[in-house]
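As a warm-up, study this chain.
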Amino acid sequence: MILGLGLIGVAIGFAIWNKPHENMAKSKAEAAVEATALFKEYNTDENAANAKFLGKTIAVTGRVKESSKTEGGPAKVTLETGDEFAVICELDALSQHARTDFPVGETVTLKGKCDGLNLDVQLSRCVEVK
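Now compare it with the structure written out below.
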């Protein structure tokens, strides 16, 4: 009996480990929001914003404040919010990107998973929406 339960546990773990990643380019955004509005919602009531956005795929539109690449890491695009803090979008390492450099001042829409507030609002697995 214990051996059977152990085998079931191993099978479930194997299935979860090998589950294909969500294709962010083809995934549908559950919400579309301006970067300034997203930051304002988190800055006003983090719990309500988490209930609305956390863990969900959202499309965020804003002006590029900064674009950076780290050695061996994904590119990040920082969107202006009118505050000293921003919305930081980390590009998806599992997706092909037409570009990873975004000129400062350009208005861009990026879609990704909302990871919540950590001084800045964080999004991961982002792709550009055309």
